[in-house]
Amino acid sequence: MSPLSEFLIFTGIGALAQLVDGALGMAYGVTSAGMLLGIGMPPALASASVHYAETFTCGASGISHWWAGNVQRRLFLVLAIPGVIGAIIGATLLAHLPPTWIRYFLTPYLLAMGLFLLFRSTRRKERRQDVPRGTGLLGFVAGLLDAAGGGGWSALTVTTMVARGQEPRLVIGSVHLAKCIVSLAASITFLLSIGESKLHVVLGLILGGVIAAPFGAWLVRRLPPRVCTLLAGLTVLTLGLYNFYRILR
């Protein structure tokens, strides 16, 4: 396949992944990394390519959410700082160790959280505006697993905080803005460890993601919180089942 054909394909993948990610708060990294692994790219290079692209796409998405009023400043800071530390450690581990172990930890969590969110979407509960204890630790773990596995930051942070009763709109916006900083830290670590990735793949993911980012931010403001929670639960459950399938292969 020619570089131009790959560029157009990954532009479409980046746009679709970012649209889903912007509306639900997850799935860009998992979708993009899964596609890169599917064409035979080594795990470390696949994760590096996704994080190079996410530095720009999540930046565009995060700014869009900021303009749309979807970002809670304190939540952003509590997630971003520990997340950067975790991303640096996770990227360093991935550059030197096999990453397959992460599926055994992430899969049962995704399955459990997906089912829990589906149950939560049928119940009404007052939304929290505070930042619960343990959010910093959550950011650290999510940053580490995201860099080591090529995705998972949003699945871990969004599902956990929404399950605690926080407003999905503010969670999604804050997570996206923090993800930009976390992806930048992972990208720098990957760049120092394994070098650059395929430029046309990264540019395709970036272009598609940047184009779709404003539409995702607009969509999340139009979706009722219960609908957003339901869609997030279905997405996480699908990701968990997919990871389970990959483990059995």
From TrEMBL:
A Pfam family recorded for this sequence: TauE
Cross-referenced InterPro entries: MFS_trans_sf, TM_pro_TauE-like, TSUP/Inactive_protease-like
Main location per the UniProt record: membrane
Membrane topology, as annotated: Multi-pass membrane protein
Entry keyword annotation includes Cell membrane: yes
SUPFAM superfamilies attached to this UniProt entry: MFS general substrate transporter
Keywords: Cell membrane, Membrane, Transmembrane, Transmembrane helix
Transmembrane regions listed in the UniProt entry: 7-30, 50-68, 75-95, 101-119, 170-194, 200-220, 227-245
Subcellular location: Cell membrane; Membrane
UniProt record similarity statement: Belongs to the 4-toluene sulfonate uptake permease (TSUP) (TC 2.A.102) family.
Name the record gives this protein: Probable membrane transporter protein
